[in-house]
Design brief:
The protein has about 170 residues and is α+β, with helices and mostly antiparallel strands. Strands 1-2-3-4-5-6-7-8 form an eight-stranded antiparallel barrel.
Length: about 170
């Protein structure tokens, strides 16, 4: 197992342990987990993406926020006969600062990003993975039962990019 794969497994295990330990606290504050689809576009010739995210409250004003994106790279690659696939996993946490407004939905956060890219040309294929830092900020519209959101996500590492996205979360 490569070092980056080991790190990814360790982060996933730590997230599960943190989630299990915090379930009693989550129940006492009354917050429920959220799940939903997302979409958007990214810089660095990755163009559009679709994905999903999960939000699990672990403390007052904090939640863990893993997400997945599948990218649709620009058409310039297919014009060259290249089949290109890019996907990523994010293991992040969010902080919800208290603001003096009703239903404040501002959040900021960060964590780890794992990006995997593979390419195939004429039967020859190659792939690469990168672990980097993810930073995010956005607004969750809490005033309705289904919760639309908009966010900015910045990935710092070999797969540098800025993602502009949004979607909707549903209470579980």
């Amino acid at each position: 197992m490569r070092a980056s794969s080991r790190r990814l497994v360790l982060v996933a295990l730590a997230s599960v342990l943190l989630t299990t330990a915090a379930s009693a606290q989550r129940n006492s504050q009354g917050d429920r987990p959220l799940l939903g689809p997302q979409f958007g576009f990214a810089t660095n010739s990755l163009d559009a993406f679709i994905g999903a995210q999960f939000s699990y409250p672990v403390a007052n004003q904090f939640d863990i926020y893993p997400s997945f994106q599948y990218y649709f790279p620009s058409n310039s690659y297919s014009a060259l006969g290249v089949s290109f696939t890019v996907l990523d996993l994010n293991f992040e946490g969010r902080y919800w600062p208290k603001l003096n407004t009703a239903n404040s939905g501002l959040y900021v956060g960060g964590g780890l990003n794992w990006t995997h890219a593979s390419a195939s040309v004429g039967g020859v294929s190659a792939s690469s993975s990168d672990v980097g830092l993810g930073l995010l900020g956005g607004w969750d519209f809490k005033a309705v039962s289904w919760r639309p959101f908009a966010q900015l996500h910045i990935v710092i590492g070999n797969a540098n990019r800025i993602e502009f996205g949004g979607g909707v979360n549903f209470k579980l």
